[in-house]
Amino acid sequence: MSENPDKPNTNEAGESKSSDSEQGLEDAVEGSDEALQKNIKSGSPSTQRMQRPHSSPPRFVTVEELLDTAKGVANMALAHEIVVNGDFRIKPVELPEDSLEKRVKDIVHKAFWDCLSVQLSEDPPTYDHAIKLVGEIKETLLSFLLPGHSRLRNQIMEVLDLDLIKQEAENGALDISKLAEFIIGMMGTVCAPARDEEVKKLKDIKEIVPLFRAIFSVLDLMKVDMANFAVTSIRPHLMQQSVEYERKKFQQLLEKQPNSLDFVTQWLEEAADDLMNQKYKNALPAEGGAADSGDSPMPNPVAVQNYAYLKLLKWDHLQRPFPETVLMDQARFQELQLQLEQLTILGAVLLVTFSMAAPGISSQADFAEKLKTIVKILLTDAHLPSFHLKDALTTIGEKVCLEVSGCLALCGLTPFTTEKETVLKGQIQAVASPDDPIRRIIDSRILIFLESYLASGHQKPLPTVPGGLGPVQKELEEVAVKFVRLVNYNKMVFSPYYDAILIRNVCCVMWSEVILLKLILKDKSSVVSLEGNKSSLSLQDMYPSEGKLSFRIEPVLYNAV
């Protein structure tokens, strides 16, 4: 098979260019940091939040530029899919039965094979089309051979010599059936074991036109097999080069489309804002005293990025565009999001059930596993638009009560009363609401576990599962492994862009918010503006009755955390 011109270049020149690109990015980050320091020292406080840079102005692009960009994105997406998805396979194209494309294809193919049938039915037969088909078959068989298959190559070149075949056709000595027999034998030699049955069936076809048609059908399947073999062969090499390759392709896209990081910037800024708001809330004193800024340092870039990835598990895919750098994994994040939603409901149902049942019920592993399996089966179709959670939870409530009653009877415990069953069913049905307290607790603890696992750097053993998640621990850990693997790979590729955005945008925003402070002292408040690089401020003139007061801040830049 021909070498892909878009494969990553591993020679020294390629490595040098990649290093230069990364060095340029680091220089840009350092330059933005120095500019930030100068602005801070100039003593010009900003009272407004920094605006995210607008998209670049529209410009006309040529068709060639558009096609080149599309090709680059397609190659990057294909390489990413091969590396990330270990089960990636190329599948034959199957057109919908009622599609226009399939109807046109069928009409064209029928016309071609009818024409071939007419030529071969003439007296004497005309072999122009047949010889062209033999030529295509020859090239296809040669493409299946590896460099060491010299003997097979010589056989194909000798038997399927088109010049010799044309001479035999002109002299009326061409035996097309003999050629077909050789082709079928060679197909059986080079095909994958999975295609042996299809090749064997070709020997039972006696008419030439149906035989050639069936040969091309099997050859198409063999091409797919060969493509998948090539994917398997290049995967180890591609995994070694994939990070640099994807970053290089994205940089090329960014140079042609400078606004390709707009949604990423917005995504990271929102994550930083959410973290800062949480820290401010946690730092508020219990009785109205002044909050100590030293207790709530600014979150570092790693914390912001981890929180941003967690936000993707709660993303509104219908209303909001996905960040550009994770767009190739959007389907995977959607799948993880669906799995976590099902785990949340499953965990909430089990927690409610075991809380209502006798203490000995939850300790029985077989019963807990059986109950979990039943609930999972009833939630299987949660991804379908026709799925109604309330109806499913009603059914789950009935089934859970039945199973719990049976288990209590087997254990010789007091059976459920009608009142208890009604309460349990009601609590299970209440899980349908996202605002249900039990569901919110389970959801919060799942996110805490994922955040801890993400912060641990994928080290073993896994973080301790929070209370209440024990029955779904196995499923949760499986999802966590997939999530962390996906996140870590994305970080390896795009972390230079994330760091640059955080330093250039979020750090400046946070420092501008530190410049303007609102100090709360009991029931009094005042806005105080700090000038220059002063680190302390006397409040005696503002509140004489409060005695000698001072407020000290220690600004910490993002990249210094």
TrEMBL record:
Residue ranges, compositional bias (Acidic residues): 23-33
Cross-referenced Pfam families: Tcp11
Feature: compositional bias, Polar residues: 39-54
Top-level division of the source organism's lineage: Eukaryota
Disordered as annotated region, ranges: 1-58
InterPro entries cross-referenced by the UniProt entry: Tcp11
Stated family: Belongs to the TCP11 family.
Name the record gives this protein: T-complex 11 like 1
Organism field: Felis catus
